[in-house]
């Protein structure tokens, strides 16, 4: 048995989260016997939690099929967005009452960025500054950039794309809002949320964070670091399922000034009053828009059961770092030097829960890996992404992924 296989065995034996894998529907055995799929694409679509199919069956057959309209009240459909928000809240370091679930990440980016500009202008009114610039992370996942550009046009702002490292120097008294990604979707780089949020505040602006690639993988500390607004999806490390609703965080102190650009009836103080004039509800409810997608919403609620019990985000982070360290160690042991270039930073403080490797024939390499049961993904033009979800990925999986990668790279030459 190779040195790496032995280490994998030891690491799996000592893994305090190993038993959580049973809460998911996965083929394979955690790599122990080399069978089934090694699923390293939870940074795109998390695996199916075993509790979801039964819950959805109940929601469809009993709640919808038998109770019908009564379920809006009797089964808590109406309050699901804030109830489920309160279950996500501790995972992102937020006290209850600040997270509301619904819509897509893109739609929540729109609400948050326009809301942040409006907040900045309220504050600026007193100080007399113009606040007509939105700064966006130049390396952002594309949707955030597209939405921020539209938000800028609508609010009469200029959009300024800046790489995250340059953001502190780019801020000034014109900055209204700054939209940042906590973890870069391509490289897996973790940005310094506390320092960047503090820099945004020092400039008198509002910080909006996209947590898609960090929520459920590492501690975020939204309240602790004074983040203003945040958004994220729930289909990656929160395992909510394809197209699962996203969420919006609005810091408690800002909620009564948060002026949503999408003030639908679900965010009205008295939605069934059916009034012609809009009056916003208090609290996180203000982030709601229209009728929530109940089937997806309740699938997400069932998926969040995997966090019940004694699992902590700190344990998840520790295992995530151990997995990505071990993957890099195995890649170094198995893959000839120079064949791939690691784009993910080595320092733990700069690393999310994925490893991104650059190689010229990445598309072909990933197809071959998938054909052999190692599922990661390819990002244009030359990046292999491997996402490590600590709740269900083990160390034997990790060793096997690196070993199969080396075999594929040996075949494909270059
Ligand atoms: C950082 C980031 N933001 C946003 C999105 C997507 O947003 P939406 O849920 O609207 O498709 C993704 C992934 O698809 C993402 O990685
Ligand atoms: N949301 C996705 C989808 O609907 C289809 C395929 C992939 C996705 C993703 O989430 C991609 C992902 N955000 C990424 O980091 O590339």
From TrEMBL:
Q: Which GO terms describe its biological process?
A: anthranilate metabolic process; L-kynurenine catabolic process; L-tryptophan catabolic process to kynurenine; NAD+ biosynthetic process; quinolinate biosynthetic process
**Assembly with partners or alone:** Homodimer.
The family database entries (HAMAP family) matched by this protein are listed as:
Kynureninase
Reading the lineage from the top rank, the first entry is Bacteria
EC number(s) reported in the record: 3.7.1.3
Similarity section? Belongs to the kynureninase family.
The role this protein plays is: Catalyzes the cleavage of L-kynurenine (L-Kyn) and L-3-hydroxykynurenine (L-3OHKyn) into anthranilic acid (AA) and 3-hydroxyanthranilic acid (3-OHAA), respectively.
Task: Name the species this protein comes from.
Answer: Streptomyces prasinopilosus
Task: Note the Gene3D superfamilies from the entry.
Answer: Aspartate Aminotransferase, domain 1, Type I PLP-dependent aspartate aminotransferase-like (Major domain)
Record NCBIfam families:
kynureninase (TIGR01814)
Q: Which SUPFAM superfamilies match?
A: PLP-dependent transferases
This enzyme catalyses:
3-hydroxy-L-kynurenine + H2O = 3-hydroxyanthranilate + L-alanine + H(+); L-kynurenine + H2O = anthranilate + L-alanine + H(+)
* Name the UniProt record assigns to this protein: Kynureninase
**GO CC terms on record?**
cytoplasm
A Pfam family hit: KYNU_C
Give binding positions for pyridoxal 5'-phosphate: 105-106, 141-144, 210, 213, 235, 265, 291
**Which terms does the record give in the GO molecular function aspect?**
kynureninase activity; pyridoxal phosphate binding
Pathway listed for it is: Amino-acid degradation; L-kynurenine degradation; L-alanine and anthranilate from L-kynurenine: step 1/1; Cofactor biosynthesis; NAD(+) biosynthesis; quinolinate from L-kynurenine: step 2/3
